Amino acid sequence: MGRGSPSILLSADVTKGIAAMRVHLIFGFLGAGKTTLLLNLLRNPDPNGPTAVIVNEFGEAGVDGAILRGTHVDVLEYASGCFCCSLKGALLDGLRELRQGRLIVRVFVEASGVAQAEELIAPLADGAGALSFAVGPSIAVFDAARYDHLSDMLGEFLDGQIRHADVALLNKIDLVPADAAEEIRRKIAGKMSGRPVFCAVRGDVDAAFLLEAAAGRAAAGEKPGHGVPAGLDGVSSAVLAAGSDLKRRAVEGFFRRLPPSVWRAKGFLTIEGIPMLAQYVPGQLELTPAAAPDHRQLILIGRGMDQAAIAGNFAETARSFSRF
Question: Which residues belong to any copy of the CobW C-terminal domain (predicted)?
Fold first, then answer.
């Protein structure tokens, strides 16, 4: 798949024509739970008409598009870059494609985990008139278990997500004590200027309640920045092929040994004969059954990763513990 070219997964039975379209931007750092939230929002078809999703993945290969297969929506998937940097213009191109000849009434845009919120909202606001769509509410997703650490590490990047969100979702509150979750919620609410903050476990929140919680609004007024925000310089991705059938304990051991330079990993593996979706952030690993994937591989994102060493460790894990 070339840079900037979408992988198109069409599943909705849509009728040709022009209809009002509303665009919701979902952003949050790597592993916050954006795709999980999106799956929950898509559980029930929109009674007003078809829904579509635009997914942006920073890594070379897409995983989220595969996760979304089987839903009742059309999916445009862009990998190998970010809408706020190397894929500028691709977002509006995708919306233009969905707008032409389809009665799409709602579009969710899942930004990459390293996207700058202001760099996404500004072009959406500029293109809304020309393409006849409405923007918002935009949703920022935060990981309760890692919020304080990421706030210290990323600073303005995380604050920018709060500043440009119409609604904030504090996710994974089951991973922290109740009083700690409430303290984090208050921190976020203190920066939201009265805009709503919801809490959730695994992104489970009432879709109508969340989407109607705030009216769409344009960018926050300050001029958008450019380039890579402080704290995200040097971010890169790697792909690990996973062709063999692995033992669960081997997979768990591999993730436990990943260095702090790996911020996020996700992909499809076969573990003891069962296709599994693996999702990892430091201190958190989820292995869940999944449909048989087209490709078995892991996508890693981080800063300063020794990709050769990590690939070697994974290959050694596969050789040592794969089933014969």
Answer: 235-318
- The count of residues in the chain is 324
Whose CA is closest to 124, among 111, 114, 112? 111
What pTM was estimated for this model as a whole? 0.71
Q: CA separation (Å) from 198 to 83, 116, 139, 170, 250?
A: 26, 22, 10, 6, 37
Any idea which residue has 């509006």 for tokens?
92
175-202: b (≥16 Cβ within 10 Å) or e: ebeeeebeebbebbbeebeebbbbbbee
State how far the Cα of 201 lies from the Cα of 233, in Å rounded to an integer.
31
Look at phi and psi of residue 304 and say left if phi exceeds 0, alpha if psi is from -120 to 50, else beta: left
Say yes or no: 184 and 290 in one domain: no
Is residue 218 pLDDT above 60, yes or no? no
Average pLDDT over every residue of 46-57: 81
Which CATH number goes with the domain that contains 304?
A: 3.30.1220.10
User: Peptide bond before 137: cis, by omega within 30 degrees of 0?
Assistant: yes
